[in-house]
Specification:
Layout lengths: L2 H36 L7 E5 L1 H4 L4 H4 L5 E3 L7 H6 L1 H4 L7 E5 L2 H6 L5 H18 L4 E5 L11 H15 L5 E4 L26 H11 L6
Parallel strand pairs: 1-2, 1-3, 3-4, 4-5
Helix pairs in contact: 7-8
Length: about 220
């Protein structure tokens, strides 16, 4: 196949991907815009972005009563999805801190998605945020262990390690690991902190997260 045909196919694939992603999460993004039109979030809040582990944390503000939290995570999203909608769910705001939970769905989407691919996607999102918010504090919450995705643990662990190592070299950026605290004495996910789907957490699981995340939040 000629280089010209390969280029055309790549452009077509990119166009199709972006169209599908836009349609998939359009309702959630529009809902955020509607909320903003009614009452725009204050400046200097803490912005939570990413996937369903944040989306389903509906009462996140009650876990952090001394902080102003703006939750703009949308369920099922990958890092590519957050990158695609960054102009809608990140850049309109003026946060003092951005907390990210994303990457797990990337790995779960296909066995071909390696920890290195997740890491490269994270770096794209990170660089995009830094271009707009060069001095804002960024917190990355590690990908969590869950019973339903335990077979993917090696990629999840290695992905966390790559992102953690990268963050060590970055200013005003923190890596927070929730992995160890979510494991039992046999080093397996604690089953009682998850909902029936064995993927998303219940209040007990979020209490674990609260204790780990709160110390790095900015007052």
């Amino acid at each position: 196949m000629s280089i010209k045909k390969l280029l055309l196919l790549s452009l077509l694939a990119f166009f199709v991907f972006n169209t599908v992603q836009s349609q998939k999460f359009q309702a959630e993004v529009l809902a955020f815009k509607k909320l903003d039109s009614i009452s725009f979030p204050p400046s200097n809040a803490i912005l939570f972005i990413g996937s369903s582990s944040f989306t389903k944390w509906k009462d996140v503000s009650s876990y952090f009563p001394n902080y102003t939290i703006v939750n703009r995570a949308f369920g099922g999203s990958t890092l590519l999805d957050v990158i695609h909608f960054e102009k809608e769910v990140i850049f309109p705001y003026k946060p003092k801190q951005i907390v990210i939970y994303c990457g797990e769905n990337d790995i779960a989407s296909s066995e071909t998605i390696s920890e290195k691919i997740v890491f490269e996607r994270f770096k794209i999102l990170y660089d995009d945020i830094r271009k707009v918010f060069p001095k804002v504090s960024i917190v990355y919450v590690s990908m969590k262990p869950s019973p339903s995705r335990w077979k993917m643990k090696e990629r999840l662990i290695k992905g966390n390690e790559l992102i953690s190592e990268f963050i060590k070299s970055q200013k005003n950026t923190v890596f927070v690991s929730v992995w160890e605290k979510m494991l039992d004495s046999d080093n397996k996910p604690i089953p009682t902190i998850f909902l029936e789907d064995q993927l998303h957490m219940n209040a007990q699981g979020y209490s674990i997260w609260q204790k780990i995340i709160e110390p790095v939040l900015l007052k």
